[in-house]
Amino acid sequence: MKRENHTLVTEFVFQGFSSFHEHKLTLFVVFLTLYLLTLAGNVIIVTIISIDRHLHTPMYFFLSMLSTSETTYTLAIVPRMLSSLIGLSQPISLAGCATQMFFFITLAINNCFLLTAMGYDRYVAICNPLRYLVIMSKRVCAQLVLGACSIGLIVAIIQISSVFRLPFCNRKVAHYFCDIRPVMKLSCADTTVHDVINFIISSLVIVVPMGLVFISYILIISTILKIASAEGRKKAFATCASHLTVVIVHYGCASIAYLKPKSENTRDQDQLISVSYTIFTPLLNPVVYTLRNKEVKDALYRAIGKKFLA
């Protein structure tokens, strides 16, 4: 009988925001607005960086890669979430769920390590400025981006092959997308080993890059404090402010979501935490880098000025 139950589950149904039934339309409008702002902001950043030669530097190369990754990341999750809020949710096949999880894991980890690469770039720029262009060559930048993506791909393949080897007895996912923990909860088998493996991998892909960024900023701050002029210190801190803001929010949300004990939060709390890194964090990138970054703002003004003068 148990074997028959295993074969019955060929698709999953997302329960989504069922606890917020009276507010679904409000949530839809808010999330749709934030999603469109995220898409528009990231597209603007990638476009501005590609057309403005002043931004053809390693730092902005990494930023354009991060914006591209964030855009693809939201495309894998948010459209289906929005459709479920207005009652258009459809069941998702096991293959479809595995595909969504694959893109989610790959791009989430890619984002973590891209932020680490950006931290290394700021470290070289401030602590070793005379050799900056030699160290941060096009080849090195490409290797760092490829490395970030490769780590994401490898971890995604390991995680998905582990999760979807399990037999499933329940089809109702207590979430709005195929995240690892909610899907594993549907299994008939004991998932203790899988939970431990998932926690170890999550810890490594969050703590390792976060630790590398932390070390980079200790070295950066110690170098900045040695600068004699107050104006020089202010300028050096300004070049790191945008990246540091994104890093704190990004790793903060990831740590709360994946490094906390499994049963600490309720389902509603887990979903609200998930919203922070699937909706708000991707929007933070274009907001911070357009509002706080003078070079990007100047490039945007130049592009707008050329369009009106043409």
Automatic annotation (TrEMBL):
InterPro entries: GPCR_Rhodpsn (IPR000276), GPCR_Rhodpsn_7TM (IPR017452), Olfact_rcpt (IPR000725). It comes from the Eukaryota. Keywords: Cell membrane, Membrane, Olfaction, Sensory transduction, Transducer, Transmembrane, Transmembrane helix. The chain crosses the membrane at residues 25-48, 60-82, 102-120, 140-160, 199-225, 237-259, 271-291. Residues 41-289 form the G-protein coupled receptors family 1 profile domain. Its main location: membrane. It is found in: Cell membrane. The keyword Membrane applies. Pfam families: 7tm_4. It is a multi-pass membrane protein. CDD domains: 7tmA_OR10A-like (cd15225). This is Olfactory receptor 10J1-like. The gene is LOC103603022.
